[in-house]
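REVIEWER CHECKLIST
Item 1: Sequence provided? yes
Item 2: Single chain? yes
Item 3: Sequence as submitted:
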Amino acid sequence: MAWNDDQNKKDPWGTSGDQGPPDLDDVFRKFKSQFGGLFGGGSGGSSGSGGIRRFMSPGMLIGLLVLLVVVYAMFGFYQVDQQERGVVFRFGKVQQDLRSPGLRWNPPIIDVVEMVNVTRVNSIDHDAQMLTEDENIVAVNLVVQYVIYEPLKYAVEVRDPTESLRHATESALRHVVGSSTLDAVITEGREALGFEVQDRLQTYVERYQTGIRVSKVNIDNVGPPAEVQDAFDDVQKAKEDEVKFTNQANAYAEQVVPEARGEAQQMIEQASAYRDQVIANAQGEAERFLKLLAEYEQAPDVTRNRLYIEAMESVMTDANKVMVDVEASNQMIYLPLDQIRRGTNVLDSVSQSARDESDGIMSAIEQRTGRVR
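Item 4: Structure as written out by the authors:
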């Protein structure tokens, strides 16, 4: 039967339909009396409330409280590993004393313990593109390895230490790369780049009080972006060719210069020897002339004739023709001695009879002329 039937017109609160909604104060008052009867309080109640009071005796309430306390205490025990330190927040306020390794207890809900690993080596990867000092774009990929050496600062001073470390890495890397040239970053300065970034990054994280110590910065890859890789390869090849040609030129110079220096030294020595020779000859001629002058002053005619004869002898020694003058005659005999001299090898093969005939001819000539000039 519906609650609004004519025979039983009552609402859900047990009142007649024409009385209106129940009073909220009466509802709360009834609920309070029933809740108080559950723990044995209140002035009256139904038979169900009295059964509940008989069931929840004072001893059972004490046991229940003890059980709640034991459970609460058990939830307060925790283990701190050897590589960890515990940072305690009591009602949100950090406590200065850290929890060392071992079995520890803190009141639950009141204290919140945050574990911080102080021995594990953590790492973050970082990729960035930036400009060098000579306005070239370079892409750098590096790995930062770090450890947490001050747990209080790591857990309290910075909201997100890892993100702060990323920002500090970006700043340090851009400062170092922006102060270097492209060749220095890519080639010989790559290792120095890692050390410089590490030093500057450690300065930044200490300034931020992150409690982080940077142990190593590894530069994995440094090079131009993929969009300009082909052009960069062409430039590098041109530089390699430049170095190769320079080395070849230096090698050629090292080969030619010593030879030129040797030839120059040889020419200098030859000139010095020629100079000494000319000076010696000049001095010898001067000495000979002085001695000849002394002889000429003693006997001018004899000395003049002797000089004339010596001069003619020196001139006629290399002559290839011999003139034979015949006294009291206009005839002159010509002997082709030059041809005879050129045919010396032929004459060696001539028989002894031909030589004798030649000697006879020469004897006849000498007898006829009387002298040979």
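Item 5: Key structural point noted by reviewer: The CA atoms of residues 319 and 338 lie 8 Å apart.
Item 6: Recommendation: ____
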